[in-house]
Amino acid sequence: MCLAIIRRWILLILIICELSLASGGQITSDPGRDVWQRPEEVMDAMGAHTGSTVADVGAGEGWFSRRLARRVGTTGRVYAVDINPKMSDFIRKWAANESYRKSIQY
Q1: How far apart are alpha carbons 52 and 29 in whole angstroms?
Q2: What per-residue confidence (pLDDT) applies to 26?
Q3: What whole-number distance in Å separates Cα of residue 14 and Cα of residue 2?
Q4: Helix, strand or coil for residue 4?
Q5: CB 65 within 8 A of CB 87
Q6: 75 and 99 housed in the same domain
Q7: pLDDT at 81 over 60
Q8: Which end of the chain has the least Cβ crowding within 10 Å, N or C?
Q9: Measured between alpha carbons, how far is 64 from 27 in angstroms, rounded to an integer?
Q10: Claim to verify: residue 19 and residue 65 sit in the same structural domain
Q11: Structural domain total, the chain
Q12: Are 41 and 72 in the same domain?
């Protein structure tokens, strides 16, 4: 089971890297990001579902964290981690404003 989880995470990282490179390294909240980032496909590949515990490492402003939080629901957990404290503060604020306090951990 642990090997399957590791493989799933490696696949997720590779998908994100590939999508990022294909976009020219564009990491923003522009409306077209769903097209090139394909969040539903990525979340399916990582097996995220209601009640899951997942991590968004290098979460930035939390674009993916927000989508993960919707996917895992109030019974799941999203660990949103970023090296930049300003990004963590940004995530903390929108998580509180959008009632994701229970599912987002930072």
Answers
A1: 24
A2: 43
A3: 18
A4: helix
A5: no
A6: yes
A7: yes
A8: N
A9: 11
A10: no
A11: 2
A12: no
- Quick one: tokens of 37? 């980032």
Strand partners, 104: 78
Answer whether 106's CB lies under 8 Å from 80's CB: yes
Does 43 share its domain with 63? no
Q: Please check whether residues 56 and 38 belong to one and the same domain.
A: no
Q: What are phi and psi of 29, to 5 degrees?
A: -100, 30
Residues 6 or more apart in contact with residue 71 via CB below 8 angstroms: 43, 48, 49, 50, 52
Q: What is the CA radius of gyration of the chain?
A: 13
Residues 16 and 59 in one domain: no
pLDDT at site 106? 67
Q: Which residues contact 45 (CB under 8 A, 6 or more apart)?
A: 8, 11, 12, 15
Domain of 7, in residue numbers: 1-25+34-47
Sign of CA dihedral 35, 39, 64, 45: negative
